[in-house]
């Protein structure tokens, strides 16, 4: 198992985590920042079925990890005074007021409480998700399927068009340009795209679909393993008499029509902001490192401390109606987790296939994993949890080692 890149002393467990990820197939990259300094930047495995090795600048489509990037972009626009979390969405996107949605706020959209998680009524065939105008027009006309402001219900795909159209309306710019000018260029990121140009697509790893369909249903539902996931939750619901709605889960998570569109090359051409972000691990980690350091990194201010405080406050603590887990939604970010449980002070977003990125201000950690071997659940799987475990344990060990060093004169070590 050949792992390339650099690991600073004390962070070797993160390299072990990458080995375990790559052993599942495909390739992957991990990057970790600690106290504003890059301490891990490694990659390994294969970027395609032909056996071409993962490179230093290889990117991977990272599914719902994209939502954390979109949330960060919108927070930056709030920081610039272009909008506020309490604004009705319709103030900036007048057509959105149709269907009784005039009072839905930006805060409700970001915390998955806008009542618009359903994708099924908006899409007749899968190719429509490639048409921005169709998707935002359908969302503008739609009545809420759930009561706005109630319990969170994961807007698995609709989140991206909602947040993206708000950002476009307040700036007059398209999502690819906004990401470039507001995040990628200021932070010096080497790979952060939602809607990728040809030169970026040339660096993209090929997604590997699960080798064995885990359930009896056809199409994308089978490919992503969501049918098995829904069946499990439905069975638990019936046994425990829990208020779980499998139909809501299906309508929020599934793309109707032609199966497998998310695995086709053309899916990267246009923005699908909840699902098709094309990233390097070092770009995600650097973005989250800035958030972990109070909103700035290397002299570049991404968010003010006040906006970061507002954005990272927990909005919802109970189980999400779609995911049936307590996600502890912030504004567009959820709590980060390890295989041992939730990290109380960390936030970010994980995605299908095991990718993810998060910031932990308490430990000043920015962590990211990208990979091209899919599988797991709609939110992610144990791969990003394993990486989070390793990063936290390494940071703790480094801190303890530092604390044990003899004190120098003047009280510093």
As an assembly, this protein is single chain
Mind summarizing the main beta sheet?
A: 7 strands, antiparallel
Radius of gyration from CA coordinates:
20 Å
Q: What's the total count of β strands?
A: 12
Q: What's the mean pLDDT score?
A: 90
Shape: globular
Strand order of the largest sheet: 1-3-2-12-11-10-9
**Run of helices and strands:** EHEEEHHHHHHEHHHHEHEEHEEEEH
Helix content: 25-40%
Distance between the termini: 38 Å
Roughly what fraction of the amino acids lie in strands? 5-15%
Total of helices: 14
Structural class: alpha+beta
**Low-pLDDT stretches:** 212-221
Note down, in words, how this protein is organized.
It is a single chain. It contains 14 helices and 12 strands. It has helices at 12-22, 65-79, 89-92, 106-110, 132-141, 158-171, 175-187, 198-201, 219-223, 226-240, 246-253, 281-292, 305-312, 382-404, and strands spanning 3-7, 27-34, 37-45, 60-61, 192-193, 278-279, 296-297, 300-301, 334-338, 341-350, 356-360, 365-371. With 413 residues, it is an alpha+beta fold. The protein starts with a strand and ends in a 9-residue tail after the last helix. α10 (226-240) packs antiparallel against α11 (246-253). Mean pLDDT is 90; it is low at 212-221. Helices cover 36% and strands 14% of the residues. The strands form 3 sheets. The protein has a 7-stranded antiparallel β-sheet.
